[in-house]
Amino acid sequence: MASSSSPVAAAAAAAAACRFLSPLATASRALHSSPTPPTSRRRLLLSTTIATGMAASSQSEGSVAGAASPCKVIDSHLHVWASPQQAKEGYPYFPGQEAMLRGDSDFLLECMDEAGVDGALIVQPINHMFDHSLVTSVLKKYPSKFIGCCLANPADDGSGIKQLEHLIVQEKYRAVRFNPNLWPSDQKMTNEVGRSLFAKAGELGAPVGIMTMKGIGLYIREIEVLCRDYPATTVILDHMAFCKPPTNDEEEKAFTSFLNLSRFPQVYVKFSALFRITRQPYPYEDTAQLLSRVISSYGANRIMWGSDFPFVVPECGYKGAKEAVSHVAGKISVSLSDLEWILGKTVCELFQGAWVAS
């Protein structure tokens, strides 16, 4: 699309672009995250130069959204857990899952404010396993800022199905996470309990986020079966299904199988936790090839950014995580309109009614 010749439209486009493509800043991040790695000064100077250039050049980039109000920036994947004090006072960690990083909601809000992020989907962390009380308390305290994704309990007795219904209907969670590692070792997500959980999520209008940490190849058949048998259940693949840029035929086959899931219209993708899917240091430029192929298969309106806070903090800082997406998108000339989908519009469309007043 040709750029508008109107100075007003051009100015509006530049303002919208700047919202997403702000230069990297280090001073305030140092107050809220781990010490900046030794190589960061050169890296951040480079990123600042690139980001500034991207913001300037975006005035001529085609975008129907350029003339409208900037879209909200929404983080589709992060966690919160109790501070040490909270853990002592009523929100204990699950045995063996004590937190090693700071991940309380106060810290999260500081990071989001610094980065210009308007809202987020909080995914129940393994640190509290199936005790959702801490996350629930945060959702109730900040109802216009956060929505929740609960953790599916695949217990053999089926008790997780009632828990899922309670969390969605009574506690107002909007999604549920399937972690196949929590299924009994000899069971799959397609067992009777898994099917019941998956079907119940669809019935309640709650998308199912699937974490394939051990590789998409191990779970591709299960995901295909669930998508085929329960088309009313929306699926979100966390962290690009943990696919890194392929370096051999086996990895290419796995990545292609992930792309082929786009044939199911209910499947969405999180372009999230870039530090987990890269082979390079920040700003993770090799993920550009992944993003390009995913946009071609799924379309930007089925892709959403997520930081994976607080795990991302010692990697590149929370603000750096947001800025990396814009940097990577610039490497493959993603339009401003598509970038808006990835940084907020997709997740807002999927969870309609959320973040209206944030």
Automatic annotation (TrEMBL):
Residues covered by the Amidohydrolase-related domain: 74-345
Highest rank taxon of the organism: Eukaryota
Gene3D superfamilies registered for this protein in UniProt: Metal-dependent hydrolases
InterPro entries: ACMSD, Amidohydro-rel, Metal_Hydrolase
Keywords from the named record: Decarboxylase, Lyase
UniProt-recorded Gene Ontology molecular function terms: carboxy-lyase activity; hydrolase activity
Pfam family for this entry, one: Amidohydro_2
UniProt KW Lyase keyword: yes
SUPFAM superfamilies linked: Metallo-dependent hydrolases (SSF51556)
Similarity comment: family membership: Belongs to the metallo-dependent hydrolases superfamily.
Annotated protein name in UniProt: Amidohydrolase-related domain-containing protein
Organism: Paspalum notatum var. saurae
